[in-house]
Amino acid sequence: MRWNKIILKAFLQTLAAALLLMGISLGVVCLAFPQTMMDITYSMGMDEASVNFALTSYERFETVDYILHGADTALEAKLYAKAEECLEKLIADDDFEATCEALDAANEAAGKPTGYRAYYYRQICLAKYEVGKGTESVDCAVSLLGGKFEEGNPLVAVVAAARADGQAGQPTLVYALEQMRKLQIDGVCDGYDEAQRAYFGQVLDTLQKWTA
Asked: Domain range for residue 188?
């Protein structure tokens, strides 16, 4: 029995040392190669961990591909707080426009839908709405209209999300109506083309009915 205890003790000590070494090695990899861990955790279905490594990789290397991965993964996993964080960094990146153009070109060549910039504009506003920032989501959407009022714009996306929330979305709808009226008062609508003015009017009329 005594020898069995000695053998068991030696085995447990060896196992503990091996686990400690593995932990240290993993820690070193995480710190030194976060981009590698980003891919590994994503392939294992560990979406939140992958997003965190994407953020770390982006902060260290400032490569737009990392934050793009973080944004797409967070959106796919409905991690809206992380999506908001990643999308803010993505849209502010100097390579954002070029990245969207490259993605559009690839999709166009493959016969797939384009419009990545508009997509990410909608998603950051929706992410803000999903984390309870209704007013901020509307302000963000208005700021991203770019002097136009095209179909599928971020403000319409926020309005649709708020409407789907029923009574909980009413404050956001009321605020969106106020901001649309402000666009009229400030003369911003004067710069819209005929089709955009008509669409603006339709959305405005609908909002007035929904908030009456």
From this structure: 125-212
